[in-house]
């Protein structure tokens, strides 16, 4: 039960905290589907927006555009986290986009489809307390008995997150978002396109790195406090990869080490930065510790490999 408490704490932590092309307006919203997005059947919930900081019950995926004042032709799809049940939209989305803008990067923040937060009485959750309760009783219910398994057979937290009912819908949204940006690259003055994701968004980013078509392959990727639930091999067309997480991440920092090893063994550009004075969910937040430098390090990595 200790792990469940840690995960719930992380959920609350997440919640609290080129060529000039088209003349973009900050905050421009692009819907990924003209009609209702598929995948929910008769289950319909109303999106909950807690001051543009936290979103949940998302069923209408969108892109929000953040143009750089002096664009350099590079764009990044920013994918916030939240356990596939909520989005830390400000700290891991908008704030990150604005930091990337300072380096000339055009940013697109992805609002992807989530698992609906519906209480036992059939009504939808409307605040963080209700969201945490639904998350615990519905999506973490299988973790308690798993704690008693031998370590080598233990189902990781990332395994649990990747097997929530709506995670495939989030993967589809990322795929469609990249396809949209590539199709409109000339309008936006984009020559190079990558991704950076956080927590569940990091899993989405890794899924995209491992499973893509030519037009939906990111040119580079950033995986921030996220990993994969088992050792893996880098794909044949693996892209340069940047990883960062807390040393003692509640979501198991060694999972990002497995990814690092796979890319290193494949001789693909890869870099990893784990921070001792950091906790899961730091996003673009700065508190005077070493992890404040992760965005600068990410951009330096991109510069090393000619993406900036």
Which CATH-level-2 architecture?
Answer: 3-Layer(aba) Sandwich
Main sheet characteristics: 8 strands, mixed
Count the helices. How many?
10
Strand order of the largest sheet: 1-4-7-5-8-9-10-11
The CATH superfamily is identified as Alpha/Beta hydrolase fold, catalytic domain
> What is the CATH first-level class name?
Alpha Beta
N- to C-terminal distance: 45 Å
Q: What class do helices, strands and sheet pairing give?
A: alpha/beta
Order of helices and strands: HEEEEEEHEHHHHHEHEEHEH
> Approximately what portion of the residues adopt beta-strand conformation?
15-25%
Mean pLDDT: 87
CATH-defined topology: Rossmann fold
Q: Helical amount among residues, as a percent range?
A: 25-40%
Large-scale geometry: globular
Number of domains: 1
Question: What does this entry look like structurally?
Answer:
The chain is α/β, with parallel strands linked by helices and 308 residues long. 34% of the residues lie in helices and 17% in strands. Helix 6 packs across helix 8 (200-210). It has one domain (2-304): Alpha/Beta hydrolase fold, catalytic domain (Rossmann fold). It has an 8-stranded mixed beta sheet, sandwiched between helices. A 3-stranded antiparallel beta sheet has the order 2-3-6.
SSE map:
Layout: H1 2-16, E1 28-31, E2 48-50, E3 54-56, E4 62-66, E5 74-79, E6 87-88, H2 90-101, E7 106-111, H3 128-139, H4 143-146, H5 157-162, H6 167-183, H7 185-188, E8 192-198, H8 200-210, E9 221-224, E10 241-246, H9 254-265, E11 270-275, H10 294-304
Parallel strand pairs: 5-7, 5-8, 8-9, 9-10, 10-11
Antiparallel strand pairs: 1-4, 2-3, 3-6, 4-7
Helix pairs in contact: 1-3, 6-8
